[in-house]
Backbone:
DNA sequence: TCGAAAGCAAGAGCAGTGCTCTCGTTTCTG
DNA sequence: CAGAAACGAGAGCACTGCTCTTGCTTTCGA
């Protein structure tokens, strides 16, 4: 399926990758606003118009970087799960580990994080290609909670009557073997997790919070509890 | 102190306001990336270079808009508090009301919201002028929780030993009459609140969540509980 | 009161951007 | 092997932020 036909196709793949690499470098250095097609081309020793053979527009290049970033953060989250052969820790600790992995990735790649979880820069609606990779972190969280639910049960968060239809719809979409109350709490926790990270990355905690990892762990642990993850102890912040 | 010296100063104030108004209009229409000094000047019937008498650079114009936006959302939050003469509702309901006011403002002004809570566009560090207005929403939340604490007490969230020094430092900075555990929970809830709003504004809930206000209210109510706000009932989502 | 000083709008111009079009050249393919 | 497709280079267009100079007007102090 992915056989390389000849020198031309091979060259195309390499040049495309080189463009993305150089663009990612400029993105990390200066941010998405300062990323310039001409500068990328210049750095690669080609003329700017040649670059349009590979990406039809600047927005398409950005979209490619967005997809890659979603994949990178998704991979970071997946890598934080216990590998086959490990003796996995308790579920709340795994939950915190995944969150910390996402946070670490964001701290290491702030501009890429801003690209995907900050203001949407290109158009206003995300292209279709991004929705798949965008959900990888969410899928990790869902998988983790599902595993906990099947293994040792959950403290199912209660649902109001008016929220129940929507909760059941979402549960059918996302995880039909999880109680709707858990799915609602999980989607909320997902958004709130990125709120914590965004505030830290975007400087909202400057001159306010010092021990950011400790605060993050405490909040995320609490977030795990709010989705029903059983804690052993009845309250308190774990590490 | 703010006496207007003459026609010149009056004109300057008016022109500055006109520039900001037009810029805000373009911001709302196309987003911060597309905001152009030349287009603003064109629309105002002046030449682009004249605009630099009022704002030294495009970033300074954006900074002015950022300050205004922080003020606007802060004002929206303050307006959601019970006015003098009202019979105020229970504290969890007030908490949810403030959060909903912020969310409503964000939905009505998505690009301005993105300007302040999305990726920081201009430099990378926020200018000093923004830190005051930026904290208004936070101050509303602090004030609300403090009032609840003094009036009817709080379920003080527990603190681990390693988090205690930081918690006490933050409490001394933000609200020295609140228990450190509450301050830590409050700062977390503050970030998580904007995580919920950002995910909705930035399209992360597209094709996923339908009844967004219901979900928001449930999560925010839970957030209030996590900071210690007493609920009456022991669990569940109120409105 | 009157002249210097400061504030102002206008225009030209510079360097940079995204993007399009054309024109030879190279590579693939029927 | 010839036609087709892909490619790199270059010129060019419309736009951007920003600077500098040139006159005009308002303000203010001697």
Residues:
């Amino acid at each position: 399926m992915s056989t390389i036909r000849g020198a031309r196709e091979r060259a195309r793949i390499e040049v495309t990758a080189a463009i993305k690499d150089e663009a990612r470098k400029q993105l990390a250095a200066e941010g998405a606003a300062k990323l310039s097609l001409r500068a990328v081309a210049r750095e690669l020793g080609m003329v700017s118009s040649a670059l349009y053979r590979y990406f039809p527009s600047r927005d398409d290049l950005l979209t490619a970087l967005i997809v890659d970033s979603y994949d990178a953060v998704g991979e970071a989250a997946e890598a934080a799960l216990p590998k086959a052969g490990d003796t996995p820790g308790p579920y709340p600790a795994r939950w915190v580990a995944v969150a910390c992995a996402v946070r670490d990735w964001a701290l290491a790649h702030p501009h890429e994080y801003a690209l995907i979880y900050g203001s949407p820069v290109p158009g206003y609606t995300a292209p279709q290609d991004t929705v798949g990779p965008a959900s990888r972190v969410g899928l990790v969280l869902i998988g983790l909670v599902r595993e906990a639910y099947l293994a040792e049960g959950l403290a199912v968060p209660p649902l109001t009557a008016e929220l129940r239809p929507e909760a059941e719809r979402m549960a059918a979409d996302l995880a039909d073997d999880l109680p709707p109350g858990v799915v609602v709490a999980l989607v909320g926790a997902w958004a709130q997790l990125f709120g914590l990270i965004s505030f830290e990355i975007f400087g909202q905690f400057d001159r306010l919070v010092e021990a950011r990892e400790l605060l993050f762990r405490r909040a995320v642990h609490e977030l795990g509890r709010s989705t029903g993850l059983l804690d052993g102890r009845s309250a308190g912040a774990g590490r």
